[in-house]
Amino acid sequence: MTKMQPVVLHQISNLSSGLGNSILAITIPWLILERTGSPTFAGLVAAVSTLPAIFVSPIGGWLADHISRRVVSIGADLLSALSVAAFPLAALTVGLSDSLILVIAIAGASFDPAGYTARKTMLADVAKTSKVKLDRLNGIHEGFMGIAWIFGPAAGAILIAVVGSINSFWVSAALFLVAAIAIALLRIGDSGKDARHRAAASGNKEPTSVLIGLTTLWRDKLLRTLSVAILVLGGVYLPTEAVVLPTYFESSNSPSALGLVVSAIAMGGAIGAFGYGWISARMQRKSMVRMILLGSAASVLAMALLPPLPLLMAAGFLLGLSWGPFNPLMNSLVQERVPGALHGRVFGVQASAFYAAPPLGMVLTGLSVERLGINSTYLILGGVLAVTACVALLAKPLRARF
Q1: Distance of alpha carbon 241 from its chain centroid, rounded?
Q2: Whether the Cβ atoms of residue 242 and residue 41 lie closer than 8 Å to each other
Q3: Closest C-alpha to 43, from 377, 375, 362, 378
Q4: CA angle, 304 as apex, 301 and 305 as ends, to 5°?
Q5: Which of 9, 14, 385, 397 has its CB 3.0 to 4.6 Å from that of 222, i.e. a possible disulfide?
Q6: Domain range summary for the chain, segments of one domain joined by +
Q7: What is the pLDDT of residue 1?
């Protein structure tokens, strides 16, 4: 095994899973709008399908800490592949009703968060085996996730145009299988398991509660503040990508334009994530957080004006570029401030927080689009995001050096 093989296999899994999900982000709402013409139902499906992740993410983190990070990742990707394949299989057999689309979407959304969390808990072990600096690997990991969201939406739009929305689900299912195979070939240590063995040998009892991730995160004021910011910002921003933009472009029958805008956001995010190591060596972290929050808010406000496509893509690119370093930064802070045996549960709680706010926001956004229109809804969401960013920057933990 070459020194970099663990990094390569881990990132093949990361990229494949990300591509599968980013294609679904286009094909599922497009399938719904194509069949029902209702942005409210599209928002409802997007909202309800995120609910399982609120509960599954902490459980997936607990499983990663207590069973095996590799096993959890492989199992989650295999189940994701099966759930995605259920869309075309149902269409070929019993037919896709509105209720069945909702059920399959919920089932699929129940598996992916556990795989995402498990792969993140493996970062420290991959870095150790490959002798790569952890900050650098955090940036690589989130950068490749960004790359997946550059090509995935465009691929989804092309698939819709070439083979139709329902057949495009086969591609996502195959990508989840590739993700599972890559982790099955990965050979690294398991720091969570090692910590449990050391504790047992010394007579100490490692905390086993699922809730220990929440209490650990809450007691750390910095991590708590940033996690609350994620909760609010996710609840405001995600509905724009899941409801507002698909409705805007579906009304003009422009799936390729939707793919281009989402890909521009992802391209900026990938560049920002890959640049995290370089930025962190030259900028204080509190200054980096200011840049992230203010840059993101300003970019969303520009997008809310719904300018011509080139300007909308440019604003989306700046949004991604501003937000890109945030996830690697959060990974580094957790890895530095939380014991390795608790990484799964802490990352799981953070993922749960990210999924907790969007459901209500998506439903309300769908209703607002139908009653107030796309332009007014987007401006309201952009304004809320800007206010939230400013309030977060005034919090004491973010004003201190960290």
Answers
A1: 12
A2: no
A3: 362
A4: 105
A5: 397
A6: 5-186+208-399
A7: 55
Q: What is the dihedral of CA 101, 48, 176, 323, to 10 degrees?
A: 140
Q: Maximum distance among all alpha carbons in the chain?
A: 66
Task: Please give the Cα distance from 19 to 141 (Å, whole number).
Answer: 14
- The first and second tokens of residue 352, run together, are 């749960």
How is domain 5-186+208-399 classified at the CATH fold level? Growth Hormone; Chain: A; (1.20.1250)
CA–CA dist 34, 44 (Å, integer) = 15
Candidates 331, 349, 52, 336; CA nearest to 210 is: 349
pLDDT of residue 82: 94
Each residue of 215-229: pLDDT tens digit? 888 888 888 888 877
Question: Which residue has tokens 């949004």?
Answer: 319
Residues 6+ apart with CB under 8 A from 352: 53, 54, 55, 57, 58, 113
Q: Give the chain's residues under pLDDT 50.
A: none
Q: Are 183 and 70 in contact (CB under 8 A)?
A: yes
As a whole number of angstroms, the distance between CA 224 and CA 219 comes to 7
- 344: nearest Cα among 53, 55, 13, 60: 60
Rounded Cα–Cα distance for residues 156 and 168 (Å): 7
pLDDT, residue 285, reads: 85
